[in-house]
C-alpha cells in the first residue's frame, strides 16, 4: 500500500503551508545501498524529511522516469555510464509554482564524486536566478566532492551555500543526522 501511495505522489509537490517560501528538492535511492544494507527509505530522503519538518518547506522528490536497479553494484555501473556520457535522464512531474520559492534545499547522494545525472537534469530545467540554494548530500567518505561549485556553475545567478554533507549510514540510523555533518563535507 505504501508503495502505491509513493507512486501516486511521484512528481508532485507535497505542500506544507499555504504559500511556503522554501522547497526541499531531493533525489535518493532505495534498495541495496552501501554500508546500510537494503533500505526502504533512502539516506538522503531521511535528511530531506527532517529539513522539511524543521523549515516548513514544501517537498519535491526527483523521481527518474527510468528507475535505477535494485542492486548496489548494478546501480554503480548504471551511474558510471551516465556520468561518462553526461546523460540527462528525465524525471517525473514538474513544479508549477517554482517562482514562489526563495530558498531551495537541494539534496542528493554523492555518486562517483559528483551528483547523480538526474539532479543535473532538474537543475537545468528551472531558473535559479535570485534564489538561495542550500545543498545537502549524503556520502560514504567522499564528502561533497566539490558539488557546491558544480551547482553554482549550472545555476547562474543563484547564491549557493556550503554543502551540508552527512554520512549515509548516519543519515539512515540517526534522527539527529543533520546536526552531524561529516568533517570532509
Ligand atoms: C552509484 C553510486 C556511487 C557512489 N559513489 C560514491 C562516492 O564516490 N563517494 C562516496 O563517498 N559515496 C559514494 N556512494 C555512496 C552514497 O553516496 C551513499 O550511500 C549515499 O548515502 C546514498 O544515498 P541515498 O540512499 O539517498 O541514495 C555511491 C553510491 C552509489 C549508489
UniProtKB/TrEMBL annotation:
Pfam families (UniProt xref): Flavodoxin_4 (PF12682)
Which stretches are annotated as coiled coil? none
Is DNA-binding one of the keywords UniProt gives this record? no
Keywords, sorted A to Z = Signal
InterPro entries hit by this protein: Flavodoxin/NO_synth (IPR008254), Flavoprotein-like_sf (IPR029039)
Give this protein's Gene Ontology molecular function annotations. FMN binding
Where's the Flavodoxin-like domain?
41-174
Q: Where is the signal peptide?
A: 1-20
In terms of PANTHER family, this protein maps to: EXPORTED PROTEIN-RELATED, FLAVODOXIN-LIKE DOMAIN-CONTAINING PROTEIN
Protein's name in the database = Flavodoxin
Organism listed in the record: Treponema brennaborense (strain DSM 12168 / CIP 105900 / DD5/3)
Amino acid at each position: 500500500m505504501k508503495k502505491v501511495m509513493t507512486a501516486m505522489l511521484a512528481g508532485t509537490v507535497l505542500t506544507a503551508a499555504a504559500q511556503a517560501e522554501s522547497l526541499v528538492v531531493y533525489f535518493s535511492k532505495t534498495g541495496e545501498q552501501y554500508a546500510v544494507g537494503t533500505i526502504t527509505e533512502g539516506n538522503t530522503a531521511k535528511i530531506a524529511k527532517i529539513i522539511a519538518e524543521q523549515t516548513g518547506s514544501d517537498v519535491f522528490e526527483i523521481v527518474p522516469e527510468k528507475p535505477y536497479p535494485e542492486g548496489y553494484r548494478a546501480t554503480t555501473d548504471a551511474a558510471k555510464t551516465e556520468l561518462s556520457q553526461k546523460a540527462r535522464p528525465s524525471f517525473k512531474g514538474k513544479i508549477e509554482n517554482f517562482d514562489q520559492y526563495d530558498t531551495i534545499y537541494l539534496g542528493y547522494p554523492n555518486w562517483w564524486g559528483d551528483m547523480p545525472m538526474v539532479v543535473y537534469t532538474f537543475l537545468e530545467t528551472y531558473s535559479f536566478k535570485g534564489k538561495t540554494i542550500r545543498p545537502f548530500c549524503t556520502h560514504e567518505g567522499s564528502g561533497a566532492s566539490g558539488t557546491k561549485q558544480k551547482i553554482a556553475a549550472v545555476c547562474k545567478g543563484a547564491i549557493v551555500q556550503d554543502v551540508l554533507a552527512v554520512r549515509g549510514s548516519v543519515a539512515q540510523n540517526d534522527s539527529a543526522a543533520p546536526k552531524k555533518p561529516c568533517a570532509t563535507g
